[in-house]
Amino acid sequence: MTALRGLPHLKGDFAASLVVFLVALPLCVGVAVASGVPAELGLVTGIVGGIVTGLMRGSSLQVSGPAAGLTVLVFEAVREFGLPVLGAIVLATGVLQLLMGALRLGRWFRAISVSVVEGMLAGIGLVLVAGQLYSVAGQQAPASGPEKLAGLPGALAGAVANTEALPALALGAGTIAVLLLWPYLPRVVRAVPGPLAAVALATLATTVLGLRVATVEVRGLLDSVHPPSLDALGEQASVGLLGTIVAFTLIASAESLFSAAAVDRLHNGPRTEYNRELMAQGAGNTVCGLLGALPMTAVIVRSAANVQAGARTKASRVLHGVWLLLFAALLPSVLAHIPIPALAGILVYSGARLVPVRQLVTLWREHRGEAFILVVTALSIVAVSMFEGVLIGLALAVAKTAWEASHIRLEVVDKGAGPVQAHLSGNATFLRLPKILDSLEALPQDRPVELDLSGLHHLDHACRTALENWAERHSAAGTEPVRMTSGR
């Protein structure tokens, strides 16, 4: 009887796993190619995300795998340190996530400013779109973000004028068009996931028309897996590599846990256990590192597809990993027919969706400070790098919070005779010290002053010293000494 009662969930989870598999397959391959690693490594990460992370507790309906959000960072790491070191970086990332989960630090990621996270994703999206548009045009992308953006108009114009580049441009543009139009097609057609349909159509067009475009290179699953060597592990002592590991850890953890919060809003099932989810992500990244594969995060696109397809338990995400494993083991040659411009088109579409244009307009109207942090974080990532951009965003968020927390009000009561009464309330910190002193120094120099500090919740050392110095200067003008009362 128990098995029969569980059967409806099993049927729903089985169907959902097929949907998630069809969504994940082109994205796993596309993210790997865009990251500058063999396509099979994207499948390895998807398999580990499904089977290893999927079996663990945390967020039961969230699906993990290679994410577009880490593409830029992985590409930079592979270019700077080499593919053999990538496994060591991912392994260290996984170990750090396990440690943070064991120390119950998962819930603290919820305290990170949403504007910083959205700015991070927007910056990643801009770099991803700019870089992948070069692939759509059949050209090599420049190294830095500003160079990518600056050279893009010329690259696209050159592709239009070059007859050899037109097939790649047409495939990429066609893929993006299919993804844009897919939500408006009949429901029967939309039963096939948009990314899969776009790649399938592009592959069919390439084969039937005999288009000369670059396709995915196939090495075989086992040939692509290279565990990190002891030399690669030893290289982690360098400062640059340690910074990359910290960036991987913070960004992958924040993206996964924010995704978990978003997935929780999509269903009424068990809520996410953030520390356990962080450990699940850490276990998955540890295994990915040992296999020399891409890092993983929870992916909102696959997770949303999982929920919308009717998944009820974690069996759906585990099964999706099994389907990826079977595909990689039995049908690897299929990858060789997939045109790279089509994968680039999918990532251009995915990257554009990371830029919250509509939300930014609303945020600007209601909370301009948060909108400013979002924009500066995104532009810093484009102009400098991922790690520095996130640090700039976090610094701005902390500064904004400190500024708002130091709200202070000065109320002056002057009855025309007797002492002038000044009442300070709020939080007196060094951030608002110029405003406080300007207001006090504007008081009449020839009148005694009573300064009431009882309304202050906080008075830091800098403000207290400055108020005492002002009181001495005011009293030195020949008036009665300033009387300060704290009420404490």
TrEMBL record:
Membrane association type: Multi-pass membrane protein
Key words, A-Z: Membrane, Transmembrane, Transmembrane helix
Keyword Membrane found: yes
Domain of life from the UniProt record: Bacteria
Sequence ranges assigned to domain SLC26A/SulP transporter in this UniProt record: 10-377
Annotated signal sequence range: none
InterPro entries assigned to the protein according to its UniProt record, in alphabetical order: SLC26A/SulP_dom (IPR011547), SLC26A/SulP_fam (IPR001902)
Pfam families linked to this entry: Sulfate_transp
Transmembrane parts of this sequence: 14-34, 41-61, 81-99, 111-134, 165-184, 196-216, 236-258, 322-351, 371-399
Presence of keyword Transmembrane: yes
Subcellular location: Membrane
PANTHER family listed in its UniProt record: SULFATE TRANSPORTER
Protein name: SulP family inorganic anion transporter
Natural source organism: Streptomyces lannensis
